[in-house]
Amino acid sequence: MKVGLVLSGGGARGIAHLGVIKALEEAEINIDIISGSSAGAIIGAMYTYGYQVERILEIVRSIKTLKLLQPALSWTGILKMGVIRKFLELHLKDDFKHLKKPLYIAATNVNTGKTEYFNKGPLLSAICASSCIPVLFDPVLHNEKLYIDGGILNNLPVEPLEGQCDIIIGSHCNPIDHDFDAKNAKLVMERALMLAITCNAYSRRSACDYFIEPKGLETYKVMDLTNLDAIYKIGYEQAKEKIKKIKTKLKE
Hints:
Blueprint: E1 3-7, H1 15-26, E2 33-37, H2 39-49, H3 53-61, H4 65-68, E3 77-79, H5 82-89, E4 103-109, E5 114-118, H6 124-130, E6 135-137, E7 140-142, E8 145-149, E9 167-171, H7 185-202, E10 210-212, H8 228-251
Parallel strand pairs: 1-2, 1-9, 2-4, 3-6, 9-10
Antiparallel strand pairs: 4-5, 4-8, 7-8
Domain PNPLA: 5-162
Keywords: Hydrolase, Lipid degradation, Lipid metabolism
Active site: 38 (nucleophile), 149 (proton acceptor)
């Protein structure tokens, strides 16, 4: 059976996807095709490129947040996406053709206001476009058009996999906590964006045959890279329980 995996965005919480993938591998469930938004696009690209889970985790551990968060000094965003691109250039070749498995990347076209999916051509600008949080980062130019974070309109891009897979597994790493403290306007703005993104992901969960949303990720900040091992462990351990049901289905 052909298995598709959909990876949501969620910033640093996206490391939970690596735990999910590791649990799938240990259960001998082969992932044939991946679709992802934002952090899910980054994890999906590195995995389909051929990196092992442990190596991806090691690479992400090496990131120094402050080096990535450099001012853009422009009216469209306050941080530079180019620094993230340089990080990607160290580990990936810039074309989808170098991937060992099919990958779809979702990004939001600023001009049309629609989600677009990329699976060929330039890879790095597609990843950056999908990961470009609006206001925080400058919009990204890809194929001569401007794009922002794919999660804005579609944080669980299941659509490219429909009709291509016998089973679709959704991995959502961006759950909402229910004890938010509105301390200031900045936090309220972040909260509003998070609610909107999570809502559009939940609207697509029924399109997945299995939906994995590790509990306990709510307390981790999306831009905080200091708790990667804990986030990975949450994704891995909770995915193992869900995968027991998936294996039963695959054996039928």
